[in-house]
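Subgroup meeting minutes
Present: P.N., E.W., G.H.
Scribe: E.W.

1. P.N. recapped why we're keeping a running log of single-chain structure predictions: easier to compare across weeks, and new members can see raw inputs and outputs side by side.
2. G.H. added today's entry (230 aa).
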Amino acid sequence: MNDSEQMKKILIFAVLIAIAGVTITKTPALRRILFKNYKVVLCAGDSITAGSYPQWLNLKFKEQGYSNIKVINMGKDGYTSGEYLNFMRLKTDWKKSFPDMVLLQLGTNDIRIDSDHTQTESFYQNMKAIIKLLRDEAKTKNHSIEIVLSTIPPVIECNTFDETSIERVNKEINPAIRALAIEMGLQVVDNHAFFVKHKELLPGIHPTQQGYRQLAQNWFHHISTRFRKK
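Output recorded in log:
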C-alpha cells in the first residue's frame, strides 16, 4: 500500500469515527493508525529539554535498532514547574501524542532568584499535579503510561542564579524529586550525577551540543530496556 492509499484510509476512518460521535483522540484504533504502532516517548521540561537531547535520543533509538520508537520534544524554554503545569492545563498538544513514556525534567527555573523563584513545597505540588494530569489523561484513553523523573543538573552563579540557587539543587529540589518518585512509584534518572561526573559537558546552565548528545545517551541507558526492538 502506498502513502496516498494509506492517507485515504486514515481520512475515511477519521470521518467514520466523527460521524459515530466518538472522540478521535480517545480512540486506540486511530492511535495505532496514526503512529503505526510506534511507542511514543514524550520529553517534557524546560529549555534543557527544548534543546537538542530529544532529537539525539530519537537518533539513538534508531541506531540501536528500535525502529518502533518515536520521540517527541515538548520542552518549553524558561518554564518553571508552575508554568509547565499551566501549559498542560491550557494546551492540548501533549494529549494528541498518546505517550507511552514521559521523561519529565523540571526545576532549574524554579531556583532562579527573579520572579520565577518557586518555593520547594510549591515545586513539589506542581510536579505532583503534572504527574496526575498525565495519568488521568492516559486513564481516559484506556492507555498505559510510564513517567520517568530526572534530577536537575548543577547550576552556576550568574545574573539569575546565586549561591542559594546552587545550594537548593542538592538540598531542596533534587531531594524533592526523589521523594516524589517514592511517593508516586516512579523511576528517577540521575542526570545531576551525570553532569557532576562530566563537568566539561555543562559549562553553564545549558549543556554543550556534545552535552546534549551525552544526556540523550544517559536517558537511553536507563529507559531502553522498557522497549522491544522491532
